[in-house]
């Protein structure tokens, strides 16, 4: 095998391990220091449309779906990427490069740190998705700001409806 072929195949940074996490179940940790700006891994998995994802996961509580682009296509997370936990003060971010999703370091990361990024969850049927990251600036939810606003609006509408029904 040519050396160049091997280098191309390994898109994931070396030294990543999965072990139990203080934030949630299992997490992804680095055993090596990572420099700010380094691409750590690609979020890979089967891709399908949002409609198909809704059908497939109708009755499942846990999904690792990642919306790409305008959110019409989702990646069904598979591999190391799906073990990365949400944190309100993360050390990584995701970038969408022509429909491929990469996780990169947004600051220098020391060996032994857990790798995290902000989920910014949206379009969820769950009433809440609490965050337990424990950071001083924890937002208390894994939803995006837009999703929090959307849910508040839905709740207000439901409350108004209930009031109307009671007075009727
Ligand atoms: Zn948090």
Question: Given the helix and strand composition, which structural class is it?
Answer: alpha+beta
> What top-tier CATH class fits best?
Mainly Beta
Give the count of helical stretches. 3
CATH superfamily: SET domain
What Rg is obtained from the alpha carbons, in whole angstroms? 19 Å
Span from first to last CA? 77 Å
**What is the helix/strand order?**
HEEEEHEEEEEEH
Bound ligand species: zinc ion
Shape: globular
Strand count, sense and barrel status of the largest sheet are: 4 strands, mixed
Percent of residues in helices comes to 10-25%
* Number of structural domains: 1
**Within the largest sheet, what's the order of strands?**
1-2-10-7
Mean pLDDT: 86
Strand content: 25-35%
Question: Any descriptors?
Answer:
single chain, 168 residues, alpha+beta, Beta-clip-like, four-stranded mixed β-sheet, three-stranded antiparallel β-sheet, 3 helices, 10 strands, disordered N terminus, binds zinc ion
Q: What can you see in these coordinates?
A:
22% of the residues lie in helices and 26% in strands. The protein is globular. With 168 residues, the chain is α+β, with helices and mostly antiparallel strands. It has helices at residues 3-9, 50-56, 145-167; strands at 16-20, 26-30, 39-43, 47-49, 65-68, 73-76, 85-86, 92-97, 100-105, 114-117. The strands form 3 sheets. Strands 1-2-10-7 form a 4-stranded mixed β-sheet, with no helix packed on it. Strands 3-9-8 form a 3-stranded antiparallel β-sheet, with no helix packed on it. A 3-stranded antiparallel β-sheet has the order 4-6-5. It has one domain (6-167): Beta-clip-like (Beta Complex). It contains 3 helices and 10 strands, in the order H-E-E-E-E-H-E-E-E-E-E-E-H. Residues 88, 131, 133, 135, 138-139 line the site of zinc ion.
